[in-house]
DNA sequence: ATATATTTTCAATAATTATTGAAATTTCGG
DNA sequence: CCGAAATTTCAATAATTATTGAAAATATAT
């Protein structure tokens, strides 16, 4: 397979992959393109390569920057802005985990705290099932939260291997 | 907070949560409803509780069954089918991990194998960056795959052990 | 300061995805 | 079997989400 074809397949699959994880296709594709580009690219490079509009490109680049996955790069003598993606995949994963934890897991845990304190007789089957379910989710969620914290702090991806011990 | 309100908030949040994870809102809501219901429910119960159409209910229940998160339950003397969700959250998580691994991670790893074998001179910066990126992702992906296998095989989450007995 | 290049915004539109509801099919008691 | 109840399907429609492109804002060189 030629590089051009391989690149395109990677970009397209990474995009499809992203959509299964709540990330929009274009954002994932821009990320993929930057991941396999040895040099930083401009908005125009990205627009051209992926044949998408300027607005779309701009919005998704900014979103990638918000997620901490892409950086603006200044190149001296160049007026345009350049962008490059973090190439160390372990750092990328940690960054994504960190963001999703903050955006989704933590708010969910806060909500569960509130819901667990529902009024009513614990002898009532309805109440009991509700409280038990909520507290089960909460406990697992809190543990996941802690585990992810440790993971985010880990220097090396080998930690993932070490995690296995926990499950044994 | 009253049970009814708490239930509704849980269902609605679980639905929103799901959408961030590539799961459609209704499917997640049905799942949430069944999670907090002490007794199995019929399609009509679910339709009424969530005010959604029969078709929608049916399709999403089937999808939940495909995911292994919901079971058909036969109740003697009843003509209608009843449905109930696995209440053991650890099992739920394992089941979801198992399915997503099969549906997403494994195909991605297969693709990466193909892409890594791209033609071209490794001295070429473009080729090198591509191959390095792909093999970095592959390495991490394989590791994750193994770790998840171990996790799926684990009998109990490392901490919820005692709690789970409560549900049984 | 002005002209020009570059980036950003956002209302309009397109594309995608979810939902409905009625018809077709299946199941099951009598 | 027959008929009623229950389930499933799926074309039509609605709702949501993504994308465009042109105008506005901003930055920079001269």
**Derived structural class of chain A:** mainly alpha
Number of helices of chain A: 7
> What strand order characterises the main sheet of chain A?
1-2
Radius of gyration of chain A: 21 Å
Largest sheet of chain A: 2 strands, antiparallel
Please state roughly what percent of the residues of chain A sit in beta strands, choosing from under 5%, 5-15%, 15-25%, 25-35%, 35-45% or over 45%: under 5%
Rough shape of chain A?
Answer: elongated
Low-confidence stretches of chain A: none
N- to C-terminal separation of chain A? 41 Å
| Chain oligomer state | homodimer
What's the total count of β strands of chain A?
2
**Mean pLDDT metric of chain A:** 92
What sequence of helices (H) and strands (E) makes up the elements of chain A?
A: HHHHEEHHH
Biggest protein-protein interface? A-B, 55 and 62 residues
Helix fraction of chain A by DSSP (H/I, runs of at least 4):
55-70%
In short:
Chain A is mainly alpha-helical and 168 residues long. The first copy, chain A, has 7 helices and 2 strands; from the N terminus they run H-H-H-H-E-E-H-H-H. Chain A has helices spanning 3-19, 25-35, 43-50, 54-66, 89-116, 125-153, 158-167, and strands spanning 70-73, 82-85.
Protein architecture, described:
- The structure is a homodimer of 168-residue chains.
- Chain A is mostly helical.
- In chain A, 69% of the residues lie in helices and 5% in strands.
- Chain A contains 7 helices and 2 strands, in the order ααααββααα.
- The first copy, chain A, has helices at 3-19, 25-35, 43-50, 54-66, 89-116, 125-153, 158-167, and strands spanning 70-73, 82-85.
- A two-stranded antiparallel ribbon of chain A has the order 1-2.
- In chain A, strand 1 (70-73) and strand 2 form a beta hairpin.
- In chain A, helix 1 runs antiparallel to helix 2 (25-35), helix 2 packs across helix 4 (54-66) and helix 5 packs antiparallel against helix 6.
- Chain A starts with a helix and ends with a helix.
- The mean pLDDT of chain A is 92.
- Chains A and B meet through helix 1, helix 5, helix 6 and helix 7 of A and helix 1, helix 5, helix 6 and helix 7 of B.
- The structure holds a DNA duplex (30 and 30 nucleotides).
